[in-house]
Amino acid sequence: MPAPTEESLIEYPSDFPIKVVGIMHDEFANTIVDMITEYDPTFHAGKVEMRPSSQGKYLSLTVTVRATSREQLDNLYRALSGHEMVKFVL
């Protein structure tokens, strides 16, 4: 008997916000935009909201991707979480 598939609470396609936090670095935002574009070719840098931490040590990026499937989002989260510049992804 096949395992039951988990039902997604997200309707696809939809716009999906993701927060990515990393150490302040000149190339952090560009690196993240490049990674996201691999999973969402319609993404562009104008969809990025940047917020530095109060001490200026970290940079928080809120990006809104066009989610087309759970697999796409899972793969994107894994790629972002595994990158050396990223502290965490929400």
UniProtKB/TrEMBL annotation:
It comes from the Bacteria. Pfam families: DUF493. Gene3D superfamilies: 3.30.70.260. InterPro entries: UPF0250_YbeD-like (IPR007454), YbeD-like_sf (IPR027471). Belongs to the UPF0250 family. This is UPF0250 protein PQR63_01775. It comes from Herbaspirillum rhizosphaerae. The lineage of its organism: Bacteria, Pseudomonadati, Pseudomonadota, Betaproteobacteria, Burkholderiales.
